[in-house]
Amino acid sequence: MSTTSESEATGRIALELALGSELNALLSASRALTEASAAAFHPELPPAAFHLARWLHAYGATKPSVLAQAVAMDRSSTSSLIGRMRELGLVRSEQHPTDRRAVVVSLTPEGTNRVLSALDLRGAAFTGRIAGWTDEELRTFTRLLHAFAAPPHP
Asked: What's the rounded Cα separation, in Å, for the pair 103 and 83?
């Protein structure tokens, strides 16, 4: 291997390590924002409850088993969280309209208000991070993130 090739390989490795560090920082920032959003949703609930509430806000009333599957949580954890959220007045359970043996859960107006407030917090944090970016920087970042997140080609 020539000296130029060695230095190019070393430079490439350094770039890949820097990318890994920045991705770790992005994931950490995202987790921190999720924790803050979940606390804003309701300080007495774990972040998983906010995950359930966001799903209910986005897709509407559903059976608890469907909700558990949709958010990749086990049914018992989902059931416990739904019970606690019901106690706090954030969700309600009603008889399924076509299957009398089943129930559906949905957000109450209070639950909806809390989800919207937490999402506003997330949105403000997000827009604050990109406020000084030019449109071209935003386009470039979006394009590169899209390319990075795309499934690999066989």
From this structure: 13
The dihedral over CA atoms of 112, 57, 25, 12, expressed in degrees to the nearest 10, equals -160
Judge contact between 145 and 130, C-beta under 8 A: no
The pLDDT tens digits of the residues spanning 9-36 come to 888 899 999 999 999 999 999 999 999 9
Q: Please give the Cα distance from 1 to 10 (Å, whole number).
A: 12
For 97-109, the pLDDT digits (tens) are: 887 788 999 999 9
Please give the C-alpha separations between residue 154 and each of 40, 46, 151, in angstroms, as whole numbers: 42, 39, 9
Q: Is residue 51 within 8 Å of 42, Cβ to Cβ?
A: no
Torsion angle of the four alpha carbons 41, 46, 51, 56, in this order, in degrees rounded to the nearest 10 = -70
Q: What is the DSSP string of 67-108?
A: HHHHTT--HHHHHHHHHHHHHTTSEEEEE-SS-TT-EEEEE-
Contact 75, 64 (CB under 8 A): yes
DSSP state of 46: -
Total count of residues recorded for the chain: 154
